[in-house]
Amino acid sequence: MNRLKGKVAIITGAASGMGAAHAVAFVAEGAKVVLTDINEEKGLEVAKSLGDHSALFVKHDVSSKEDWDKVIEATEKTFGPVDILVNNAGIDKPALLEEMPEALYRQVIEINQVSVFLGMKAVIPSMKKGSTGSIVNISSIAGFVAAPYRLAYSASKFAVRGMTKSAAVELAKYNIRVNSVHPGLIDTPMTSAVPKEELSKINIPLGRAADAKEVSSLVVYLASDESSYSTGSEFIIDGGITAQL
User: Fold this and answer.
1) What percentage of the chain reaches a pLDDT higher than 90?
2) Are 65 and 41 in contact (CB under 8 A)?
3) Recorded GO terms, molecular function (predicted)?
4) What pTM did the predictor assign?
């Protein structure tokens, strides 16, 4: 239960869903965690449940460089230099390409893609202080295969996949590892908004959606020293969906 003992982590989008599950798992493994989200009420609630000595919530617009600077500052002031960054925050705004407003496309790209760039860039100086680091970028199987009515979402998730590889090669000299995680259908508030008839069309060999905790187990592994030789890699967790394609 001490796989992350002594490590300091930032997890974005941690007020609910996978982000909250990651935060719970990290604290259980001994990490100090800074949870960030735009939803202050729920974020504070999750952080409080984890304890003041183990968790801190910071309200955070992940598409804002200024907000990222504040998060790094608060993290170092409270817990010390950052060892782990989990870029988990994301949104899904389904729309037909022909009908998709430009503003919606840009919003998805800003939150799902630009935020990953900003987060990785912001955390590097802090990770250099400890001469080590692990960045886990949450992408999606939509970063591998087509996702109908989700051109913006797919674009952002394909981008995160490529950004992860480029960053991994560039940051290896600092002993900073960068990997991407590609979930399939996960039982979260985001997927609960998807119409049931659409979900029923997904052929999942394991026959079910995943619990967010199952993704957290993989994220803990990538954040820990157990994955010390893994960088620039893609980790798919989709119950076998992409194995059929």
Assistant:
1) 91
2) no
3) androstan-3-alpha,17-beta-diol dehydrogenase (NAD+) activity
4) 0.95
- 3-state secondary structure labels for all residues of 132-191: CEEEEEECCHHHCCCCCCEHHHHHHHHHHHHHHHHHHHHHHHHCEEEEEEEECCEECHHH
Instruction: Give CA–CA dist 159/151, Å, rounded.
Output: 12
Catalytically annotated residues? 153
Summarize pLDDT for 120-149 with one digit per residue, the tens.
Answer: 999 999 999 999 999 999 999 999 999 889
Asked if residue 135 lies in contact with residue 180, where contact means CB atoms within 8 angstroms, the answer is no
List phi, psi (to 5°) of 92.
Answer: -130, 120
Least confident of 8-17, 54-63, 94-103, 184-193: 184-193
Distance CA 83, CA 6 (A): 9
- The phi, psi pair for 110, rounded to 5°, reads -60, -45
Residue 224, Cβ neighbours under 10 Å: how many? 20
- What is the CB-side half-sphere exposure of residue 146 using CA atoms within 13 A? 3
What gap in Å lies between CA 160 and CA 170, rounded to an integer? 15
pLDDT at 182 over 90: yes
Element containing residue 9 per DSSP (H, E): strand 8-12
